[in-house]
Amino acid sequence: MKTILITGTSKGLGLELARAMLARQYRVLGLSRSGCDIEHRNYHHLAADITDAEYPSALREFIERIGIRHLDIVVNNAGNRSHGSDIESVQVEEVIRQFELHCAGALRTIQTLLPMLERSKIVNVTSRLGSVKFNRRGDFGGCGFSYGYRIAKAAQNMLSLCLAADDKLRGNAVISIIPGLLRTESGADDASHSAAEGAQAVADKILSVESSGVYHAFEDEAAY
């Protein structure tokens, strides 16, 4: 049985992705600050905060307790919305918090799991808002999207590029996925798909893609 680890499985895309991968006969290791209502013989949950200094040791103990030696897929999905869409309202502390959650937390996860990654897929759930290309051409002008979230997702995109170029991860695919506009608590006001629909599309994309790069779950434009 293949094994996937997904962060942020308490709700939204992460919860639905866990369900989608269980349906595909994967063993799923889920992780979030709070619990998860999935009850399945192949689902294992760790309550932890990926921004906490004790997170790496908690994750290692969790993996050892289950007895997993290899992970086929790791999905860095944990995240949430932010506030502060103009220079007067943005708080530096919030930008740092978003960076810790979306970028540094993903880095901690991969560093901790490194011994279990061989010919695996490292998936970072990114956003159109983190694309330098999309922001530079003015796609989001006047939309009120926050500094913190966009900066954090742009940093996560650079993390993906760094991981893909790292010789110690040679043989692994580093995949950034834009899940599309999903109707979740952290979704945009113009969202058009449910979390369950997004999860199915993301799962299909993860399983079909073999090489590093940035992709869109619903085949729209994707760019760093």
Summarize the structure.
This protein is α/β, with parallel strands linked by helices. The protein has helices at residues 12-23, 55-66, 92-113, 132-136, 147-164, 195-208, and strands at 3-7, 27-32, 43-47, 73-76, 121-125, 173-178, 182-183, 193-194, 213-216.
N- to C-terminal distance? 33 Å
SSE arrangement, N to C: EHEEHEHEHHEEEHE
The CATH class name reads: Alpha Beta
Q: What fold name goes in the CATH topology slot?
A: Rossmann fold
The biggest sheet amounts to: 7 strands, parallel
The percentage helix is 25-40%
Uncertain regions: pLDDT < 50 for 5+ in a row? none
Mean pLDDT, rounded to whole units?
95
Strand order of the largest sheet: 3-2-1-4-5-6-9
User: How many whole angstroms does the radius of gyration measure?
Assistant: 16 Å
User: Any idea what the CATH superfamily is called?
Assistant: NAD(P)-binding Rossmann-like Domain
Q: Would you kindly provide a written description of the structure presented here, covering whatever features stand out?
A:
There is one protein chain. The protein is α/β, with parallel strands linked by helices and 224 residues long. The chain is built from six helices and nine strands, in the order βαββαβαβααβββαβ. The strands form two sheets. The chain has a seven-stranded parallel β-sheet, sandwiched between helices. It has a two-stranded parallel sheet with strand order 7-8. α3 links the parallel β4 and β5.
